[in-house]
Amino acid sequence: MSKEYIQKSASFMISFFIIVILAIFLSLFVIHQQEFEKKESKEEKNEVEEKEYQISYQEENSQYEIFKKGDSVTVKVEEQVVCIQAPCNPITYQHAIRFEKNKKEVLSFLEDLFSKTTDTHITITTNQLDDAQQRILEAIIYNDETYLEEPKKELYFTLQSARIDCPTVLLKVYRDNTYEYIYGSTRDGNLVSKEGTYAYPVSSFLEDSRNEEPNEIGPYRLTFASGEEKYLYDNTSDIQKFLEKIQIQLDTCSTVLENS
Prior knowledge:
Largest sheet: 7 strands, mixed
Distance between the termini: 95 Å
Low-confidence stretches: none
Number of strands: 12
Structural class: alpha+beta
Number of helices: 5
Strand content: 25-35%
Helix content: 25-40%
């Protein structure tokens, strides 16, 4: 084996090992850089999550300060009491939110409040919130999860024609300015209905005389939630104006529909 061949082989081996060592160092550098970036990103995320947000809310004589830090929500309350000899010191206390079922809904509501601002302390008022948001806020400040439940509709009265000889449609009117019009049923007994809203002042015919004079057309039967009944006639009440506004015809027989 020649000396020249040995020298070339040695040179090749040295170059090969240098390349391998450089590749190892480069791989270690890339891995280290990735780990560093992951750690930095995680720290930044944690810093954002752990930032404390504060919401101020005033309700009559009570001042509420809501603090959110990560998933932790705390409420500080300052309640100005009425006393015989003023001034008197307000009552202060605080509570932490520990809801069982609706914690995510509460956190989402609070996060939405800060989604359009860079401030970490804001003041809110009732007129900024819709009904659902108001229920969430009340659940927070009173520390009562039941405020998040959908309010039950309160029946005001029902209306039904009493002047046609058949089972008739039924109009159920609720106190929240909504109604349910039940116009039929399926063959297996399920009611078929549609819902709507009204803005008509129903007191205009609710306050009509209980002793209205009958007319040849016949009456409508109005039944209050208590079960009390009265009869209304076209010639002495404004009931037709209400029905025209919501486009409901009560002098209609209820229909039986095929099962869907």
